[in-house]
Amino acid sequence: MTAVRTVTIALALLFAAGCYFLPLGDLTISCMFAVFAGLFNVPILPSTYGLSTKLVGNMPPAVVNGLMMSGAQLYAFFATLALTAILDSS
C-alpha cells in the first residue's frame, strides 16, 4: 500500500509541475519530464495488480488483471478523444 501511495503522489506532483514547465518550450526540461514520468509510471502497474488482487478476495488474479487493463484501455481511449478535441479547438 505504501508503494502505491508513494508512486501516485510522485506522479501527481510531477504532472502538476509539468503543467507549468512544459509550456516553456525548453527541450531539456521536456526530456527530463519524459524520463521521470516514465520512471514513475512503470512501477504503478505491478504494485496495483498485487493490491487489487488482495482487495477483491476470491477472484482469480488473471480476471483482476484483465479488468484493470480494460479500465486502463477505456480511460486511454476517452482521454485521447478528449485531448484531441481540446488540441483541435485552438
Q: Please, what is the oligomeric state?
A: single chain
Number of strands: 0
User: What fraction of residues sit in β-strands?
Assistant: under 5%
Spans of at least 5 consecutive residues whose pLDDT stays below 50 are: none
Notable traits:
single chain, 90 residues, mainly alpha, flat
What's the gist of this structure?
This protein is mostly helical and 90 residues long. The chain is built from four helices and no strands. Helix 1 (2-21) packs antiparallel against helix 2 (27-41) and helix 1 (2-21) crosses helix 3 (44-56).
Topology, element by element:
Elements: H1 2-21, H2 27-41, H3 44-56, H4 61-89
Helix pairs in contact: 1-2, 1-3, 3-4
Commentary on this structure:
The protein is mostly helical and 90 residues long. The protein contains 4 helices and no strands. Helix 1 packs antiparallel against helix 2 (27-41) and helix 3 packs across helix 4. The termini are far apart.
